[in-house]
Design goal:
It is built from 3 helices and no strands. With 91 residues, the chain is mainly α. The protein has one domain (9-90): Methane Monooxygenase Hydroxylase, Chain G, domain 1, CATH 1.20.58.
Length: 91
């Protein structure tokens, strides 16, 4: 497989490392007997960081890889592609 990088990949790695740090905190909190509320807040932070990383990756893929594959389209044919890109924000 060839190397595949986009400008957003460093941002994605940063988000995933943040999630990794939060997840390690969750494990430590559970082992230390912290309150469920505190643990739930940290788990929420993990989910949010991973979700943002996934969203950024998918949007970047659509913006670059899909565009490269289908090529330039006339304005009237772009509507479906633009709608598809917009709906991925709700993943």
């Amino acid at each position: 497989m060839s190397e595949h990088r986009h400008d957003t990949h460093p941002e994605i790695v940063k988000r995933l490392k943040r999630a990794e740090g939060h997840l390690k905190s969750v494990i430590t909190m559970i082992e230390g007997g912290r309150s469920c509320l505190d643990i739930a807040q940290q788990l929420h932070a993990v989910e949010k960081a991973i979700s943002q990383a996934k969203r950024t990756l998918i949007q970047d893929h659509l913006d670059h890889c899909l565009e490269d594959t289908i090529g330039a389209l006339p304005h009237e044919q772009r509507h479906s592609i633009d709608e598809f890109k917009a709906i991925t924000k709700y993943l």
